[in-house]
Write a structure and sequence with these properties.
Number of strands: 13
Largest sheet: 4 strands, mixed
Distance between the termini: 45 Å
Radius of gyration: 25 Å
Number of helices: 26
Helix content: 40-55%
């Protein structure tokens, strides 16, 4: 519990320094529960936690575990003010406390660690879970209009998108204006139950120079806005013509333009940052443009020839931002290498990969998965990734993030129709090609990262471990048995759980004969540590194998699995369905039927957990006709089950 206690003390000190909020009691009580549906609960003076967010040792916990504990402990502590001292008037205002508190814990984690890496991880989570929710049948505003079961509104929209709204408010009014506004909010409403409008009004009253009336639409309109930006030179200037569109969602059509802060920068032809001048007398390296209309023009004055525009820096708004006519791979490679905004360096790498991945996946659909017919990877793409790998001026943590290839679910979200087999093959091919062309740099990098020493939990050490895992994953794609032997050494002799699980994950996803050896030895060593066993279960459930369904059924018959334990369910069924799109869909009708059976069985045991599992079937419209029909039939069977809980019924019914 030492790390949790240290995180609590750090969060108390941070809240005093950043928000001026002190703890108001003499004792702060913490309870850890092994079987708990949620991550934690912020009862006044008695915070209840899922054990995974409190119990950690240097032997059993990964770097990610330590970071999650830090974040969740801080989140629950911050609720003392944003949730308890000032609370919600009604359930429709749930994001008043959750969105604000998520933003507070995001900023705390950024200050405790590397801000850019923290931001990247938060956006990955938002795009992976909230963007699809906003585009699906259960889309709802941050302040919902209605519900059957309130448990179903503890969603990524309420939490993560709600946090992005607070971030945008701070961007619009500035750091000082935001602090003045939150001071007014807490002082004005201490001891009261209030609304989202009350929070915005406090920010507005503290910043009368800003009009936030239009911003309130973010709380009432669902859907992810799209900004389409046309970049054109006009003499010495560059003109940004910005069109915004807010898509129709269930129950909402014909939406109004939103108030969107669009952060932009310029990168000169030599790679140096260029100040942005919009004629307001303030030259800034990153300028926030306030998009308020359906179509709007912004003029960047005196832009040097060859300078490249960097859009949506720091992910300044939860939107999709696209360049009219697209962005060339050479320009993306340039931004990936030179952009001063670290978030956009990562984003450029993601878009560079996505262009090839989506194109290849579509080609594979048309050619019945003929991988041999795919074109070779362009030199611009390879060089951009290789230069990132060997650039030691960039932190290991950021390099690990920039080198991370988009996941299969995210690739599918960029396609008109999701084809899991083609996406899986396209991603495998992309990684293998990159690894083959970068092999020398990968091997020399790995050699420098394999040094052993005392386990240290700091940015540099965590970054080195993250980069080591990324490099090993690339090399493992080449299926050289010597790489798998290195992974087995990590499983057997790793000095920390991060390295050990990196090796185990790679082996579990491979066809190497060392796979079964590693899994058996790991379980024998750690079978009495239930949190570690959950990792063992999840790693196998997420292995992208054609026989994933039979593997999952086997895992559920082991002594390690208990369907009545939420963490076991999240590890196995959640890992299989949410974290293994290829493996889940490879089973076709059998997978969907099995999963429907599991939801129904879980509903009789723990309706809240069952409801969390429904999401594996709700995106059935996104797939090809045959697969879509099978998924829909499975979901209908769940919805029509007699005696179904409101938790599951509401989500299943809305999704049909």
């Amino acid at each position: 519990c030492g790390h949790a206690i240290a995180s609590l003390k750090n969060s108390m000190a941070w809240d005093e320094a950043v928000y001026g909020r002190e703890y108001d009691l003499d004792v702060f009580n913490v309870v850890a529960v092994d079987s708990f549906n949620m991550g934690a609960m912020e009862n006044k003076s008695l915070n209840v936690f899922n054990s995974k967010y409190v119990l950690a040792s240097r032997e059993t916990a990964t770097d990610a575990d330590f970071m999650a504990i830090e974040s969740v402990v801080a989140h629950e502590y911050f609720h003392n003010w944003s949730g308890n001292r000032v609370t919600c008037r009604d359930w429709f205002q749930l994001s008043l406390k959750e969105g604000l508190t998520v933003f507070r814990d995001h900023e705390f984690s950024a200050d405790m660690n590397q801000p850019a890496v923290n931001r990247i991880k938060n956006v990955v989570r938002l795009r992976a879970a909230q963007f699809p929710e906003d585009a699906g049948p259960t889309a709802h505003p941050v302040r919902p209009d209605s519900f059957i079961e309130i448990n179903n509104f503890y969603t990524v929209t309420i939490y993560e998108k709600g946090a992005e709204l607070i971030r945008m408010l701070r961007t619009i009014v500035g750091n000082a204006g935001y602090r003045t506004g939150t001071d007014l909010y807490f002082d004005r409403h201490d001891g009261q139950a209030v609304t989202c409008d009350d929070f915005i009004q406090a920010i507005q009253d503290a910043n009368p120079q800003v009009d936030l009336a239009q911003f309130k639409l973010w709380y009432s309109q669902a859907g992810t806005p799209t900004l389409t930006v046309d970049v054109a030179r006009r003499g010495d200037d560059v003109v940004l013509a910005v069109d915004q569109a807010v898509p129709d969602t269930p129950g909402q059509t014909g939406k109004k333009p939103m108030h969107i802060p669009l952060a932009v920068g310029l990168v000169g032809a030599d790679g140096a940052a260029v100040p942005v001048d919009v004629g307001d007398g303030a030259l800034e390296m990153t300028k926030v443009l306030e998009v308020r209309e359906a179509s709007q023009e912004f003029v960047l004055k005196g832009v040097p020839e060859g300078a490249v525009v960097s859009l949506l820096r720091g992910f300044s708004a939860p939107v999709k931002c696209v360049r009219k006519g697209g962005v060339s791979k050479s320009e993306l490679a340039f931004l990936m290498r030179c952009d001063a905004d670290e978030f956009n360096r990562w984003e450029s790498g993601q878009q560079l990969a996505i262009q090839t991945l989506v194109s290849n996946a579509e080609a594979l659909v048309a050619s019945s998965n003929d991988v041999a017919a795919l074109p070779p990877l362009e030199d611009d793409v390879v060089q951009a990734f290789e230069k990132t790998l060997i650039d030691t001026s960039v932190s290991p943590s950021l390099r690990a993030q920039v080198l991370s290839i988009p996941g299969e679910s995210y690739i599918g979200d960029q396609m008109a129709v999701v084809h899991p087999e083609a996406i899986h093959a396209a991603r495998q091919h992309f990684v293998q090609q990159l690894a083959s062309k970068m092999r020398g740099s990968l091997e020399s990098s790995l050699e420098g990262l394999m040094e052993e020493g005392e386990y240290i939990l700091d940015d540099e050490s965590m970054g080195r471990r993250a980069l080591k895992g990324t490099v090993l994953s690339f090399l493992a794609s080449l299926k050289d048995e010597s790489t798998f032997e290195k992974c087995l050494d990590l499983v057997r002799k790793g000095t920390n759980m991060t390295d050990t699980l990196a090796g185990l994950s790679i082996l579990a996803s491979s066809e190497s004969p060392l796979r079964e050896v590693a899994l058996a030895e790991f379980y024998a060593k750690w079978k009495d540590e239930f949190l570690v066993v959950d990792k063992w279960l999840r790693i196998q459930a997420m292995s992208p194998r054609a026989d994933a369904l039979s593997l999952v059924k086997s895992l559920m018959k082991t002594e390690a699995f208990d369907i009545k334990t939420p963490n076991n369910v999240y590890a196995v069924l959640g890992g299989f369905v949410m974290g293994n799109p290829y493996g889940f869909h490879a089973g076709g009708k059998d997978s969907y039927s099995f999963y429907a059976d599991m939801i129904i069985e879980l509903d009789g045991i723990n309706p809240q957990v069952a409801a969390r599992m429904v999401g594996g079937l709700t995106k059935w419209r996104r797939f090809d006709t045959e697969r879509s029909a099978l998924m829909r039939a499975a979901l209908e069977r769940v919805r029509n089950k007699e005696g179904l809980s409101n938790d599951v019924f509401e989500l299943a019914d809305k999704s049909l």
